[in-house]
Write the structure tokens for this entry.
Amino acid sequence: MTQFEEQASQELYEKNLITENQFQEIKEYRSLNIFSLNVELKLLLSISVLMFTSGIGILIYDNIDSIGHIALLSILFIAICGCFYYCFKNSKGFQKTETKFESPFLEYLVLTGNVLTCIFIGYLQFQYQAFGTHYGLATLVPTIVSFVCAYYFDNKSVLTIAVTGLAAYVGLSVTPQDIFNESSIMAYKSLSYSAVMLGVLLILWTIYSFKINLKTHFAIIFLTFALHIISIASITKMTDYYDYYSSWLLFTIFLIASSVYFYKISHQLKSISLYVFMIIYAFIGLNIFLFRIFENIDFNDIWELFILLLPIYFIASIVMFIKLIKNFNREIAK
């Protein structure tokens, strides 16, 4: 890696892209062998937040009879107040543009306070039915709190929780294990319409945010959720063999429109993740579409040819995928 960096610096110098003084400064800096622990420290902070919030949950579960509900809620409330007091005291306040904090500790303290707030509201609803039979409010209120915290403190982790809560409020299952449960979108295929509407709403909000220049760096999060939600919902509906109204064709159009949009926006934002997942979902959708078109055709006479061509098709798809990724990297590097 060091040899590669030295060669890169030498090439820049030979092409007169950097001066001799800059070249010497780069060599002197690299000779110090300084390395960053930023990623490692953030990973430890993330693990700390996860362990702390998990510990709170275990504490509630193990001591719910001996300590009492009021005491546990009081402890949670005090912890939440402490977190947000420190955050509000040391934050720079709300800003429309991206905000950088001097210490990453504040960012993870906001995340801790937000997660504890979600636990507090959920516990309150479960034990005392604070929202009565309006169970959706128990999801909507933490979602609103998360959105406020995400925008005020400029926290992407909290924004992820907020969008997840919004999807849960709409009725979508967002955990991997729910894919196999009856509560998931795979079981209740009517939720596909709600999922597409939610995805479109996230896209429209992103467009509006760019228009008013409001936290535009949040766009990648909204668009990532929108891409996955719309694509999974469309693919799910395309595989619905109990669909008597041929709405799978409508969702094929949704998937095509989604693929075209995310193809363009991935180039604009230079986002390789959006581009890769767009290709994967488009490829899956294309294969499902071809299968549904040709499922009623009798291949008895040419099934041997079909089997021979199948490996070639997949190999060609892999080669095309690699070529598309290389072209994308070349285009965004310009």
